[in-house]
Amino acid sequence: MDLAKRSPLMRQPPYHRPHDSLWYLRRSVYRRYMMREASSVFIGLWMLNLIIGVLRLSQGEAAWTAWLTWQQHPLMLTFSGLTLIMAMVHSITWFAIAPKAMPKFIAGRAVVHQQVVIGHWLVFGLVSLFLLIAVYWGA
């Protein structure tokens, strides 16, 4: 639409403040945010790898063995280690921001942020311990 044909209130296009592509490097809070978002990509790729593994398992012993061999390649071992580090970064930052997403008061009492974080870590540890014991006894 031509600017002259617009109503008098809409003669100017909307203002878009310019910003550079490395905006997240200016402040540490932005860098942590981007690190948390980047960790999601690694975890998503690892889950895709596991889905491919299940697909290979359904295709027979030869396909499964080929997938297992690929998992022992140095590239995949490096990727697995990096994904583990990114999963830890994601967990740490996720639990740290959990109290900020909660209401300030529950049943008229103030929520203590440190207690929420400790509670998340306790539940995470108990579930991990339960799964470790279940896998160990099931093997």
Automatic annotation (TrEMBL):
Q: Name one GO cellular component term.
A: membrane
Pfam family, any one = Fumarate_red_C
Domain of life of the organism encoding this protein: Bacteria
Q: Does the keyword Ligase apply?
A: no
Q: Which UniProt keywords apply?
A: Cell membrane, Membrane, Transmembrane, Transmembrane helix
Q: InterPro entries from the entry?
A: Fumarate_red_C, SQR/QFR_C/D
Any transmembrane segments, and where? 33-55, 75-97, 118-137
Q: What is this protein called?
A: Fumarate reductase subunit C
